[in-house]
Design goal:
Mean pLDDT of chain B: 79
Order of helices and strands of chain B: HHHHEEHHHHHHHH
Strand content of chain A: under 5%
Number of strands of chain B: 2
Structural class of chain A: mainly alpha
Shape of chain B: globular
Radius of gyration of chain B: 18 Å
Mean pLDDT of chain A: 84
Distance between the termini of chain A: 34 Å
Largest sheet of chain A: 2 strands, antiparallel
Helix content of chain B: over 70%
Number of strands of chain A: 2
Strand order of the largest sheet of chain A: 1-2
Largest interface: A-B, 38 and 42 residues
Helix content of chain A: over 70%
Structural class of chain B: mainly alpha
Strand order of the largest sheet of chain B: 1-2
Oligomer: heterodimer
Number of helices of chain B: 12
Largest sheet of chain B: 2 strands, antiparallel
Number of helices of chain A: 14
Chain lengths: ~325, ~280
């Protein structure tokens, strides 16, 4: 129906407009900060999801965030380079490194790939901690990273003095990233990604160069991670190796899985819910990990498909309840 | 010589952890992240029984192994079984369990390190190197446990059944092997081994709720290196990594050692994706 399509396009635009209006409602740094963190999580979870559509579970996300962050930090603190130039550099560096290391390791499949990226994340972090201490700052990292330079707009400059400007910057990063991932996933390339996930041998015999497509997915996903790194460097002002452990990468995967890997909205939902949960649980410092772990266990036991499968699950329950009411004998449901 | 003994010690400990992990993977095809927490629980039991209530050390260790094995079976029944081997939710549930166990440990035990008095005293001299009786005892007991495991897997019916399941699940169930019992048994043995490692090491190291995280990562590296699901592979991996760590600790700082270990694992992976002796990834699908 034409009406349905119209709604599908209008809704995201409405959401973006509403999000842009948030700073008019509140300027409290805390709320803006949470939203910024949510936006960044969304970028990261969707980028990991993109790589996942080719069947590869990537746990090196924060290694690439580190690449973007460190590159930006070094260039900004040591040279007079405009931070905006660092943006494409950060993304390119992440993408190139991803492509180079992807070519050998993307041949590895399944659990083993996860384990390799697990190790890779740690190697990258340890490299940033141990190599070139005078440039990279060793374990102490790099500090004093200043905010992005002003953007002269003719009538006024955009200054990055307050949290509000970072908020808009984060929003400006999230929207295109999400569009890129969504667009790619729905395109012919995305179809090839999913075909590779479903049966790579069949793809190969159809003449598709799987390594090429896997590397593309990996490079795009990791360049988005590098983009997040570019934002993080001035936002946090100080970056240190413990900020980029495998645990951070793991949480990105957790958010993606809890949200649901079946659709694009899964990682988005997961990022929002889990980041919100983490913030909420700060109120219970002693029990926070316990509750978080319990949430993970309970959600996945009841919703193996993730949060996005909730509507489906509810409607199947309703279906089951109503047929019980009608006194019908039901065959075993596929959900059992 | 001391490096050699250090290597043997590390090998034995890694082997105890890794064998359990690879067994669970071989039979249930899941990576049992809470393995490290079983190690921690083993230490906790010994702490409470031996250090607090003065129950004999030997008894404490045995109780630790049995108790944690039972916990493992409960976990398997409650959490892993309902998911029927669906890898992705199982992964998250395992992670959740790690957090829950660590938090429970924290709440119950407190965040600070505790000490357990040593049971074995004295030192020996072997070929000019000094070794504490404690270390020697740990090595010997560890090796004994490993030997028992090997005998179990090779000689008993149950052991052979487990090896069969590791090779081909479908064929195993066709032959009439009870898969559910296999799952529970493998969890029991795996967790028992981890608890043994924890219990044995507890007098030597400090006990705290987070002590399981490092051993499980190292065990994971060993299992990757040796090949997941392969017991000889795990032993071999433990040997390689144990000695690699002992040797590089001699010459390099510990941070470099960690990098070396991980790089080694990645390199092996690129050339032999299933590890040195592992089950082919294709067999899993």
């Amino acid at each position: 129906m034409i009406r349905g399509t119209w709604l599908k396009y209008i809704l995201p635009v409405v959401v973006v407009i509403l999000l842009s209006l948030v700073p008019l409602v509140t300027q409290k740094p805390y709320y803006l900060h949470i939203l910024i963190v949510i936006f960044l999580s969304i970028v990261l979870t969707t980028s990991v999801w993109l790589i996942f559509t080719t069947g590869q579970v990537n746990n090196a996300t924060y290694g690439f965030v580190a690449i973007g962050a460190y590159l930006t930090a070094v260039l900004v603190t040591r040279s007079q380079l405009n931070s905006w130039l660092c943006l494409p550099l950060a993304m390119a560096a992440a993408a190139i490194f991803a492509a180079l290391i992807g070519i050998p390791i993307l041949r590895i499949k399944g659990v083993y790939f996860f384990l390799v990226t697990f190790a890779l994340a740690e190697v990258m972090r340890l490299a940033f901690a141990g190599l070139w201490p005078d440039v990279l700052g060793g374990m102490g990292g790099i500090s004093g990273i200043h905010a992005p330079n002003q953007i002269p707009l003719g009538f006024t400059n955009i200054i990055f003095g307050s949290r509000v400007s970072f908020y808009y910057l984060a929003l400006a990063i999230m929207v295109p990233s999400v569009l890129i991932v969504y667009g790619l996933a729905r395109s012919r390339i995305g179809l090839i990604f999913r075909a590779i996930h479903a049966s790579d041998k069949l793809c190969e015999s159809s003449g598709i160069n799987i390594i090429f497509y896997k590397v593309v997915a990996f490079a795009v996903g990791c360049s988005l991670a590098g983009l997040v790194g570019w934002f993080i460097a001035p936002y946090w002002r100080v970056i240190t190796p413990p900020d980029f452990t495998f645990a951070h990468s793991l949480y990105v995967l957790v958010a993606m899985i809890v949200g649901g890997v079946g659709s694009f909205f899964g990682p988005v939902a997961g990022a929002i819910v889990l980041t919100g949960l983490e913030e909420y649980l700060i109120a219970f410092p002693y029990y926070s990990k316990l509750l978080y772990g319990l949430v993970l266990i309970v959600v996945l036991l009841f919703l193996p498909g993730g949060l996005v499968s909730l509507p489906r699950k509810i409607s199947s329950w309703i279906g089951r309840l109503s047929s019980l009411g009608r006194g019908q004998k039901r065959a075993v449901s596929p959900e059992d | 010589m001391e490096v050699f003994l250090g290597g043997v010690m590390l090998t034995v400990i890694y082997a105890l952890m890794a064998l359990g992990l690879t067994l669970v993977f071989g039979i249930m095809r899941i990576i049992n992240f809470p393995h490290g927490e079983k190690y921690m629980l083993g230490s906790f039991v010994v702490y409470y029984l031996f250090a607090k209530w003065n129950i004999s050390y030997i008894v404490s260790v045995i109780v630790a192994i049995v108790a944690v094995a039972i916990v493992g079976v409960i976990v398997e029944r409650a959490l892993y079984r309902p998911l029927k081997g669906n890898l992705i939710p199982t992964f998250i549930v395992a992670l959740g369990l790690v957090l829950v166990l660590q938090s429970l440990g924290l709440i119950w035990f407190g965040g600070s390190d505790r000490d357990i008095p040593s049971y074995f005293h004295g030192i020996h001299r072997i070929f000019g190197a000094v070794i504490t009786t404690e270390r020697a005892a740990i090595m010997l007991i560890g090796i004994a446990l490993i030997v028992v495991l090997v005998l179990f897997m090779q000689r008993t019916k149950l052991g052979r059944a487990m090896r069969c399941v590791t090779q081909d699940r479908t064929a195993a169930s066709l032959v009439g092997i009870n898969m559910e019992r296999m799952n529970s048994m493998s969890m029991a043995i795996g967790c028992g081994l981890a608890a043994a490692a924890g219990a044995l090491l507890s007098p030597m190291l400090y006990v705290n709720p987070y002590m399981g995280s490092t051993p499980v990562i190292k065990a994971l590296a060993v299992v990757i290196l040796g090949g997941m699901g392969s017991l000889p592979g795990a032993a071999l991996g433990a040997l390689v990594l144990g000695f690699a760590e002992a040797l590089s600790s001699r010459f390099f700082a510990s941070s470099v050692v960690a990098v070396i270990v991980f790089v080694l694992v990645i390199v092996v992976f690129i050339f032999r994706p299933t590890g040195l002796m592992g089950i082919s990834a294709e067999l899993q699908e």
